[in-house]
Input
Amino acid sequence: STLASALAAELRMRGTDVAVLESDALRRVLTPRPAYSEEERDTFYLAMAFIGKLLVEHGVPVIFDATASRRIYRDSARRQIARFLEVYVDCPLGICLKRDSKGIYKRAQEGAASTVPGLQAAYEPPQHPDLVVHGDRELPQDAGRRVLAKLVEKHYLEEHIPAGEGGI
Output
């Protein structure tokens, strides 16, 4: 979430308006009483990818702010969205536990949540992410700038030329 916010802020400073599809917010609408079953997660993440595709088709860049713990979820988004960039935020579990601003890991440790990816549910790391960000060693703003650089490198985004440094 911190990286998604930092990246969105960087993009907006460049004049690119972006939609951040945050899984917790979408889940409140798509599954108001979530059971977090495997079937429900499959449906949710496939729907999230489809919503992202629709936005992109209408010219709105999208940042997916979601765990998407299975490769099939990320692969579905990649198949549907031609200019897709997969960013793997590699962060040790201990750091995730310390930064647990939403209380997800705490609830899992107390037994109130039983399907948290990385604890009770498997997390399938990406096999070939476009970019790896190290959540324990990089500041969100620096990681956001690296994502921007990768978007430029892949020609998904034009290189930003500050005002007065070129052009007409």
Notes: Confidence is low (pLDDT under 50) at residues 163-168.
